[in-house]
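Recall the central idea of this unit: under ordinary conditions, the amino acid sequence of a chain determines the structure it adopts. In this exercise we apply that idea directly, starting from the sequence alone.
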Amino acid sequence: MIIFGIPIQALLGQLMLGIVNGAFYAVLSLGLAIIFGVLKIVNFAHGAFFMLGAFTAFLLAQYLGANYWVVLFLAPLLVALVGMVFEWLFLRRVYGLDPIYGLLLTFSLVLVLEGGFRVAFGSSGQPFATPEWLRGTINLGFMILPVYRGFVIAAALLACFATWYIIERTPLGANLRAATERPELTQAFGINVPRLVTMTYGAGVGLAAFAGVLAAPIFHVNPSMGSSLVITIFAIVVIGGLGSIKGAIITGLGLGIVEGFTRVFYSEFSSTIVFLIMVLILMLRPAGLFGREEG
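Accordingly, the structure predicted from this sequence is:
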């Protein structure tokens, strides 16, 4: 069957690739949106934490023999703790200053992490085997779906829904939203706002690490794996609306699919389509699709 001159198998294959990439985009964008929404920090180190999650999974599996379920839970938790220490020691010292200080601080962390792992493991990457019970394919009738990619989509969507539910439907989320909008008043009600901010940063980078663990069996684990994603993730967050949870999830998934279809019809344009959409959205709605207009 041919659609617009393209075989249906090619379209469906790129649709699946777009959904998988969109799942990664959604989780990464969600973590970045949470951090910006609470800390007002442009976390340039987000891609480095994505890489750190993948390397932590690799090290746990390679040297401690941890199985995939343990790795999937433990690696994001460990990276979240690293992020919380970084926020407590360094990042909180630049709150309230010009945003360039936070950007430079997080960028310096990128250089340290990527440089350290490049020295230790080289730049070619380390293989991470797909768990045996997630290998193989499923025949859906209209396409062949690799089992692991289906698992990635399901796990990413579950993580996004759980994060949205915690922020929008629980007392913890209510405290977090209050601390974002009125930190002094929230502190007056006995809520430890600095601790809440630290935990929020840890949760944001933990989501990046979770995406890194999911990505490890698909891509070689290498020090630069986050650098190629972080600019696209920033663009997605801008399109969805800075600090918007719903915007990060919907825009991440949607632009992953758009990018996948662009590869079919005009592959040379696939790496820039996200940025063209960002320019158009900013011209029409500067706050982003789901952002709130100031004033």
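The beta strands are 2-3, 6-7, 137-139, 144-146.
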